[in-house]
């Protein structure tokens, strides 16, 4: 089903983005390491990760970022533009964790003819602990 376009006039400060739920697997983490040329064994070798004190292999920092990016782009498509996105990894996640990406509008304004929306975004685990806080700036179409 095509995305329903969100317009600048449809959002206000506090508007929440639809959440995005991911449940990474060890195979997904192995494949993501391979495709991104990430050779750090902590992401695909469970014994190695455990020798460093972790319970399992870890979700890659950039995969957390990819989940947040998908949250935002799913919301703004098909005509919105992602201008800026940043995040900070604060808590590790492992295969089997349920990671829910969320977001809300914190500011909206018109600048140089663009309808700009600033977002607070974050990813939390199944215990409600924030793993990855972040921000994003998007441009939405106007009606």
Question: How is this structure best described in words?
Answer:
This protein has helices spanning 26-35, 46-51, 61-76; strands at 20-22, 81-87, 99-111, 114-124, 130-139. It has a single domain, classed as Thiol Ester Dehydrase, Chain A (Roll), CATH 3.10.129.10. The model has no long low-confidence stretch (mean pLDDT 95). 22% of the residues lie in helices and 31% in strands. By secondary structure, the protein is of the alpha+beta class. It has a five-stranded antiparallel beta sheet with strand order 1-3-4-5-2.
Write the layout of secondary structure elements.
Blueprint: E1 20-22, H1 26-35, H2 46-51, H3 61-76, E2 81-87, E3 99-111, E4 114-124, E5 130-139
Antiparallel strand pairs: 1-3, 2-5, 3-4, 4-5
> What distance separates the N and C termini?
22 Å
The CATH class assignment is Alpha Beta
At the fold tier of CATH, the topology name is Thiol Ester Dehydrase, Chain A
User: In this structure, how is the largest beta sheet organized?
Assistant: 5 strands, antiparallel
Name the shape in a single word. Answer: elongated
Order of helices and strands: EHHHEEEE
How many domain regions? 1
Number of helices: 3
**The named CATH superfamily:** Hotdog Thioesterase
Strand order of the largest sheet: 1-3-4-5-2
Our Rg estimate from Cα atoms comes to 17 Å
For the secondary structure, the number of strands is: 5
- What structural category characterises the helix and strand content? alpha+beta
The whole-number mean of residue pLDDT values reads 95
DSSP strand content? 25-35%
Contiguous low-pLDDT stretches (5 residues minimum) are none
